[in-house]
Amino acid sequence: MDFGASPSVPTRKEFEALHRDRTNSTDNASPTTFIPVGASAYTEGSTYTTLYFKCHAQGGDGETQFVRASMISPQRLKGNSQIKDRVTILNSVSRRLAEELGCAADASLPATVPDPEPT
Predict the structure, then answer these.
(1) Domain residue spans of the chain
(2) Which 3 state secondary structure label does DSSP give 43?
(3) DSSP 45-108
(4) Residues 77, 80: Cα–Cα separation, whole Å
(5) Most CB atoms closer than 10 Å: which of 43, 46, 112, 116?
């Protein structure tokens, strides 16, 4: 897992454009699933999970509005809800961090992760 400050959150449209540019072909693109958690949450393929949540803070690099949390799963999780399970893990750790940072009220990190958005 990795956590870092982020001045902004890419919109779904911006993410999809960047993802398309990165792969240069929809045939080679990893499936991306968005889940309504925090400011933005998505999974790419069977290993990458990213979640952004609102957390205003002042640090050594200046002011930040969001925290970006990411996780790489070295192998596929077992079970029928792998995408939701990965976001649940990252959401749970992010909720704890938001509590420690004093921004849980603004983070929009639910106790239970909702189902993925339709593609």
Answers:
(1) 2-21+28-107
(2) strand
(3) TTTEEEEEEEEEEEETTEEEEEEEEEEE-SSPPSSS-HHHHHHHHHHHHHHHHHHHHT-HHHH-
(4) 9
(5) 43
Instruction: Render pLDDT for 26-49 as a digit per residue (tens, 0 to 9).
Output: 444 567 889 999 999 999 887 889
**Looking up tokens 């803070």, which residue turns up?**
57
Those residues whose C-beta lies under 8 Å from the C-beta of residue 52, and which sit 6 or more positions away, are 6, 9, 38, 39, 40, 41, 66, 67, 68, 69
> For the chain, how big is the Rg over CA atoms in Å?
14
Tell me the C-alpha distance between 94 and 52, whole Å.
9
Q: Are 36 and 76 in contact (CB under 8 A)?
A: no
* Dist CA 47 CA 36 (whole Å): 19
Q: pTM of this prediction?
A: 0.82
Tokens of 61: 């690099």
| Phi, psi dihedral angles at 54 (to 5 degrees) | -70, 130
